[in-house]
Amino acid sequence: MNTGTPYPADWTVRQARDAYLEENGFDLASYEDPWTKASVLGIPFWVPNTARHRWAIRLHDLHHCVTGFGTDLTGEGEVSAWEARRGLRSLGLYVGAIVAFGTLMGFALAPRRALRAWRAAGTGRSLFDPARYPSDAEYEALLDRRLGDVRRELGVPEHGSATAPRGFHSLAAR
Predict the structure, then answer these.
(1) What is the rounded average pLDDT for all residues in the chain?
(2) What count of other Cβ atoms lies within 10 Å of the Cβ of residue 68?
(3) CA distance 135 to 156
């Protein structure tokens, strides 16, 4: 599946996550790897996959599913702006800096879209709430919920927050 449109609200979060991983060429095993591949401007590099990063990247990927923002540079800037507006305190310095960098990149590359994402975030909550999703059991329970229900809980429109079709990063499997 590679349509660039938001995932259906009646899908489970797991269905959306699995589609997201497949269309981007990611896999579940990478969540546990000691290093994770990243890229900027098509240049791949590796970043340490610390315990906090492993926790956050799983939820960050779900933010893509919930909001509909893509994985190209503009989409990463949008989802980062959305996450930054919702709060980064629980992420720690390292992961928070990654999100802050993504936000700055978004405002530099596509300022109007990044600003729309920032505004769309409002003052709601994100999945980066360790009191709500601190363990694997809570994460697994989240995956079994309907995507539309999670969107409602987070104050995201039924079909996501994105105003443009999802773009894909330069190394996506497509």
Answers:
(1) 91
(2) 26
(3) 24
- Note whether 99 and 41 are within 8 A (CB): no
Q: Which two tokens stand for residue 156?
A: 């995201």
- The yes-or-no verdict on residue 2 having pLDDT over 50 is no
**What residues are paired with 36 via a beta bridge?**
47
pLDDT value for 1? 39
In this prediction the pTM is 0.93
Nearest Cα to Cα of residue 68 among 139, 128, 145, 11: 11
Q: Which of 52, 107, 43 is nearest to 78 (CA)?
A: 107
Q: Supply φ then ψ for residue 45, to 5 degrees.
A: -155, 170
CB distance 4 to 164 below 8 Å: no
Report the first-to-last Cα separation within the chain, whole angstroms. Answer: 9
- DSSP state string for 82-98: HHHHH--GGGHHHHHHH
pLDDT tens-digit readout, 17-31: 999 999 999 999 999
Report whether pLDDT(161) > 80.
yes
Give the residue extent of every domain in the chain.
13-154
- The whole-angstrom separation of Cα 101 and Cα 88 is 12
Tokens of 135: 């363990």
Q: What is the pLDDT, as a whole number, of residue 171?
A: 67
